[in-house]
Each structure stands twice: as C-alpha cells, then as structure tokens.
Please model this.
Amino acid sequence: MPQRNDIHKVLIIGSGPIVIGQACEFDYSGTQACKALRSLGYEIVLVNSNPATIMTDPEMADVTYIEPLNVERLEQIIAKERPDALLPNLGGQSGLNLCAELNKVGILDKYGVQVIGVQVDAIERGEDRIEFKETMNKLGIAMARSEVAYDVDHALAIAEELGYPVVLRPAYTMGGAGGGLVYNKEELKTVCARGLQASLVGQVLVEESILGWEELELEVVRDKDNNMITVCFIENVDPMGVHTGDSFCTAPMLSISEDVQKRLQEQAYKIVEHIGVIGGTNVQFAHNPKDDRIIVIEINPRTSRSSALASKATGFPIALVSAKLATGLTLADLPCGKYGTLDKYVPDGDYVVVKFARWAFEKFKGVEDKLGTQMRAVGEVMSIGKTYKEAFQKAIRSLEKGRAGLGFVKNFHDLSKADLLEMLVTPSSERHFIMYEALRKGATVEEIHEITKVKTYFIEQMKELVEEEEQILPFKGQVPSSEILVQAKKDGFSDQYLAEILAVEESAIRKARLCAGLEQHWDAVHVSGTKDSSYFYSTYNGLDHNPITEGKPKIMILGGGPNRIGQGIEFDYCCVHAAQSLKKLGFDTIIVNCNPETVSTDYDTSDKLYFEPLTLEDVLSIYKKEQPVGVIAQFGGQTPLNLAGELQKNGVKILGTPPEVIDLAEDRDQFRSMMDKLGIPMPESGMATTIEEAIAIANRIHYPVMVRPSYVLGGRGMEVVYDDQSMADYMAAAVGVSPDRPILIDRFLHHALECEADAISDGLHAYVPAVMEHIELAGIHSGDSACLIPSQNISPENLATIKVYTRKIAEEMHVVGLMNMQYAIEDGKVFVLEANPRASRTVPLVSKVCGIRMVPLATDIITSELTGRPSPVEDLKERKIPYVGVKEAVFPFNMFQEVDPVLGPEMRSTGEVLGLAQTSGEAFYKAEEGAGAKLPLEGTVLLSVNELDKPEVPALAKSFYEDGFQLLATGKTFELIQAQGIPVKRINKLYEGRPNILDAITNGEIQLIVNSPVGKKSIHDDSYLRKNAIKARIPYMTTMAAAFASAQGIKQMKQKGDGELRSLQEWHRLIEEE
Model:
C-alpha cells in the first residue's frame, strides 16, 4: 500500500535539553525523521527547546520553533501552524509525555491533529504501570511480582508482602528518575516519596527484586501490516540492578543460548503486536539463569537510547525507517541492497559491538560513585571488533579518560585481593577496572561472579587478557617478540597501553608492529535500506575489505568522542556542518568518531565514516590508508585538539589554526606576554607548582583568587580561594601538578560582568557576529551561566573595545577558522580572561540567534589554501538583531540529590535551552520555562542571602513586592527589607526552631527561592534549602544576577504577557544587515 496522502503537514516534537537519560540520541532520531519525511514530500514543523542540536537548524525542517516544551506553548504552535499529524515517538520521553498530555486535555481533537507512529492509548499501555501489567497478564507474559502504590503507607504494605529488597519505579519518567532499589523500610519511605513526586501521575510500582538476573534487550520494528523484524539482540554484561544506560553491553548476545533468544523474540513480538506501535520499540527482559525464568521488565514504545545503539551496531537506521513506516509504507516497500526488501532483514553481522558508558562523578563533590537503577552516565562510546576482546579494549580506549587499557587504573593495582573484592560489592563506574586488578591478584572467576553476578563468560575473557598482560610485563624496557606483539594486537591491546606498561615509546611499538607486517585492516557494516552504503571499523583479525576511492580530494574531520560535561553535542553540531560544507566545496569527507548517539556517526553525514576511537594509533592508520589532503581538528572540542600536535609530528597536515597556536593560548606566560605586547589588560596572575609558590602569588595579587589546573575543558578542578589555609588545602589535593602542568592562579574579578565573543577569522581579519553577555557574574563557568545574545547592558564603548580586542588577538595569533574569546568588565574596564582558537560550545547558539552559518564560513576559510577561494570575512556585515536570545543551562542535580546545587567555576550542566523574544525579560522567562523552572507570576518569594549580597536585597525585594508577591525572609535579610518599609514576614532557618523554611517548602507555601550560599565560612550549612527546592520543584536562584533577571522577566510577563509567537525562520527575517 502506498504512503498516506491525507496528511501533508507533520509536527515533530524534539526531546529538549540534554539531560542524564535523554541525550543526543534523540537529536539523531529527530534529524533522521525530518530527512525521511521531507524526502517523501511532507512539510515538517519542528518544536524543540535545545539550540545546540542539528535538529533545530533552520534548514532541517520547513518551520522550526525553539520554544519551551509544554502543553501551553504547543497549543499556540498547533493553533498557528495547523498540522495534520503529530509524530511523537522520536523525541524521547519528553515527546511521548507531551503527546499524551495534549491528547488528555483535548487539544489534538480540538485542532484535528492525528497521531502517527504510535497510538495514544499505546503510550498508556507502555508507560502506565497498571495498564502495562494488565496487558501482560492478558498476553500470558510473566512479569516481576509487583503492585502499584499511590502513597508511602501502601508501598510499605506491598513491600512487606513481597519481601525486601524491592525496586521502586515511578510511572512516566526516564533514566530511572526518582526510583531505586531499597533494602529496608526507612529507605523505602525516602525513595517512595521522591518517586511519587517525580511521577507525572503520582504512581510508583513496587516490585520484587530480580537483582543479579541477566538483563537482555530486543529492538523490534513493526509496520502497519504487522510485519515484524528484530533489528538487534543486546546483552547487558552488568546484571539487573544496574540501569541499562549505565550497564556495559554487547551485540549480538554472546552468552545467551539460541533457545532463550528465540523465546525472547516470540514474547517481544506478542507485546509489540498487541501494543500496536508502528516503527521501533525497545523491549527489556530479565532472565534468571538458575531456573530459566524469563520476565518482561518494560517496553519503550519509541526510539530510545538503545535504538541509537542498535542502529549503529547493525547499520539499520531505525529512526529513518520508523518515520517512513509511520506514513503508511511497509517494510516490504523499502528496498535494500543486501536483503532485497527490509522485511527480509536479519541481524547477521560477523563482528562484536561493545557499548561502554561515560560518567562524570568527578564533577559532583559528595556524590558516591555508585551505580543502581537510576541512570548516572552522561554519555557512551561504541566500538566494533572481530572478537569480544578486541571490541572491549577498543571501547576502553575510546572513553577519553586518559586510559589506554584496563590495567593500572588509579591505585587499584596496589590494593590487596581482599580489598578489591570488597570494592566490587557495590557496583561503581570503576567496576570492570577493579575486576581486572582482582583477577591479577589471584581472584577466581567464581569469586568475582558470586559478588558481581557478571556472567562467567565475560570474566573468563577478562582473565585471559590479564594472563596475556602478565606474559608481556617481563619485557619491561624493551619491545617484546613479534609473536607476542601480534597476539596482543589481535586481542585488542593498544599501542599506547603496551608502551605504557613496557615503559617504551609508543612509536617503538608502532615501528615493531609495522616491521612484523601487522597493520589495521578494515571491514564494513552494511547500511540496511540502502543500495550499498557502509561504514567501517578496524581489526587486527582478518583481511582488508575497505576499497579506497580515487578522484576528489579528501578531508578528514575528527569527531568529539563521548558526550561528557564540558564537551557535549555542540561539537558534534560543528563536525556535521563541516562535513556538509566540505561536500559543497567539492571534497570527499571522512569522519572518525566513536559516539553512537550522534548525527556525525550517521552513515550519510560524511562520504565515509570510520567508527573508531580517537587515538593516535587509530587516526594515523586511517590517514595512511586514505591519504587525505588534510585533517580538521578544531571542530571536535578537546578530544581532537589533544591529538593534533602528535599527528602533526607524524606528518599529518592539520588544516586551519596550527596546533602550536592552540598551545600558545593555553600557555599562560606566552599568552600574557602577547597581551602585554598588544596592550590588552588581563587580571594579575601567576603559575605555581608548590604550596609555598601558590601562597606567595596569592598574597602578591590579593585574595580572593581563582585557581585551576592548565589544559582542561569545562573548568575541571577550578575553585575560588579566599585565604592561605584554603590555598594550602587546594594545592595539597591537586593531582598531577608538574612543572609542565602547573596550577594557574588569577585575581578574582569582583562584581565583574562576564561576556564572550565568538569570531570567524582568516588570519588577517576577524568578524564577530555578536557579543554574549553572561547573566551570572564572573566566577561562574561560562557553560553554566545563563547568557543574553546580543548583549543588552554592555556600554557601546565596551562593546567596541571587545570587538577591537578580539580582532587584534585573532590577527596576532593568525587564527584560521573559529575562535572564542572570554572577557570580564570590572568598573567599566575590559579584561581578557582567555582565548580559545577553536570551535566553542556557543557556536550553534550564535549561529541560530544571529542567523549566520558560522561553521560553513569557517570551513570555507580553512580550506582556502586548497581551493584558492577568497576569504568571506571582509564581506561580512554588522547585523542588527531586533530580538533577544537567552541561553539557560540545564543541570543534573535532580539525579544527584546529595549534591549542593550551587554554581561555581567548574562546569556541571549537561545541556541548555534557548528562549527567543522581543525583550530580554520575556526571553529569560521563556528560557527558565524551557529549563523546567517556570517562574511564578504570583505567590510567595523567599529571600535568604549571604553578607556580600545584602546591599542588593532592598531593590530586589521592592521589585517582587511591586509585582504583587508576598515576601518571606530570614534573619538579617528580613531586617534589611523591613528597614526599607517593604512588607515582609520573618521565617526561621532550620536551626532556629519550627515552623521553618523546610516546613514552608514542604507545605507548598513558597513559589520562588532566592538564596545565595553562605559558603565555607559559616558554621551552619544552608545547602538543605537548595536541595529541597529541587525536590519540591521550586524555581531557585543562587546568584543575585539571576534573581534580578527573574524579577525583570516576571515584571515583563505581568505587564505585557506573551509576545508574538514566531518561528526561527520568522525571527531571522527580522535581522537587518548594516
């Protein structure tokens, strides 16, 4: 049957900001859906609040709205655009939940919008815990014994009957948010209360614990004629009890019998048919190897994190196919070069895929590194090899954690077997590294299996790697025989790791390997649904099946590796744009990356994709094979930049800004002397490697000072230090400080306005589209600060100075391509903070707000030495932007409830949203709404601020009072407000008696909290206030700057209400060139 022609305009809902549990895999699926539906002739209206994605580029859909994802905003868009259909199952949990809510309140019926791809009642059958249970009972499919609770007492009674431990699962959430495994009544009370709050419908499932069972997943695709195929069988190596997003897993299943796989498939088909999803569905099972019992855990009636993995693991583009099936096509209608048509598809690759998660525990002080049923990972890597050992070791070296292999991590090697086994009792992000050392210390496979319940097959494989490593170690100081070297390479040991454990140069290992005739070969993964498209992976086991094309000159783009805090989807955005631009300039493009969630690893983003770790060994092999005319390293963030210098030493041509210039910007001494030469002021600073040096510098430039290690991204390890004692503590705790990598100390600028400028430079001229003004003052990491673009409160003189400085620096450093400059303005004077001669995380933001294609322009400049094209920079004109964008960061504090959610110089946000409006007040209001912290327009505001912020309180209180809010304040804050004659009530702090702040929060008496932290000096910890604000979902501001911006936003909304709703394309039409 042909595709549907009764629908013409389709609304796609994106997944919003990147958060733990919902990352850029939905940018990938949404982008694929837009491509698929537009290719079939449909008009696409896209809604998403995330500016960092490819998906929200004005070219991706016909009409793009960057708006908060909630029912009110969506109704406005539906009323204006009048779409015929809504495709909700490609925008993660956000998209599904919104579709269910729009249906519930009757908006879809009111405007005659059909839901395609998944029926609305199917969402309920899949997501609502009671509905799902009833459906499974009807089908005769076993589930864990469980019951639904609507309050804590009910949950206690159910747990009593099932026996502890029990698992709590709130309905309509993702990433296991609000749930957990509890072992006793007290734990149940805490977690259940949290879960009821997190659930959309106030229900929590209490189920028997199946800890230690095997966790298995199937990715199934169904069409409207009920044809079903299993795209991928995924085996989680970590057993039940660790969330699948944190668990390391393999495809295909390596230790599961054919019989069990067949039973899983039969049950999955029954479920998917009954629920009636068209497109991809992820079905999760648990299997008890002791009694062979299989139970279904849950289904996701949508493309999920696992679907992105399954797509990349098998070459089957699930989201693309799902979107086509939603329009009425069937699997038999979709041709495929390998299987004829897609209904004949079977997963039959002759390789092993491993997915390994990437965590960011180091960013959150006070968080225990512990894995459970609530997801903690911020990203993941995927690797492909001919054998499990090869794929596993490739995954480890892809992680960007400075680890080239499994052994000698942290101090694990120095611990006893007993200590290591004890550490394995609680699953953590280091679990597999600890297992490796435990095996080295003589732990048996059985001992480890008993404690971890990881399957013996995987532990045996690891044991063989340990034994092989122990045979290599005696050769320390030399290169082992070619026989040993060849075997080590076949089992996935990297050149770098062998060099580290043998204490020789990596180049010596590489030389010996090449002398022994051992080079990487490549094999292909066929892309289903295409004639003959493929992407490639390397192996030392097997022959080369990688034909090299001659003809057009090739350029290689190095990707960003796994998502992590400080290095997110923004860099993938830059790599994808670079690939698209290079194609238009007549080059063949090659992308190297190992992140399965991204658009850059989609098969058709580049002419050729290598799914490989970003290490010297892997990139050099590809370079040698493909012989590109150059490599671009400046778009992938820190990952490729760390490689650029070594690549250049090995004869690789790096296009654009040379690596030495990038090093110069990192070297504070060299950079300062350049600033002195240009007459550009910087805050006083120094570099120290000892406690004495650090204290001497701090006393010379006066406290407070900002301290941080050199060479990091995302402000890792940065702190503001106020006295000698704190400085001594910081230096004592700093790891890996050496004369090459000293600690940097800068004077902390007081009450300074921070701003940044992205520039496009050709080495002689630089163009600045707009200056971004940070809302938070200097001292908060730029990635975590909300910011206004274009700036609203910087004087014309200062703006002119910033543009002049940026141009001077770009020209002096001969920057070719993109550059990001950070400034602070203290008492009307502009200081340079740092220069980053590369793409920064603000590139997508500036591109979208200013309507300028920054990466294509930069790509044109970078390749001009090859194309001879003139530089576009001189022709770029100043732009007058008659509206304001506000970027707001989104944090994972709800997943880390033990962390104090205060902001500082170390970056902790996982994603961002954008609010666009005619005024900065409304834009800020929309940004907060998009970030899930909708500002109240009435009610009560609580003010409790530290000494430094007291002078600003009266003005803030007055603004809230004038807008009709009741005011509550503590101690001295209360006295200050009262002294100004503003009506205010006093409220007790936690230690001052009852009723106190906590009671008021719990009783829902407070709608907005302004609380700047008292800091380490205070005897009383005030973090309980901020932690409870998160639990109760009350918007809270921890800086006065954000509080004033909120007050302004509230005032604007109360006086004027919503401004005109405009799409991104309509906003861009308002821009005037000067």
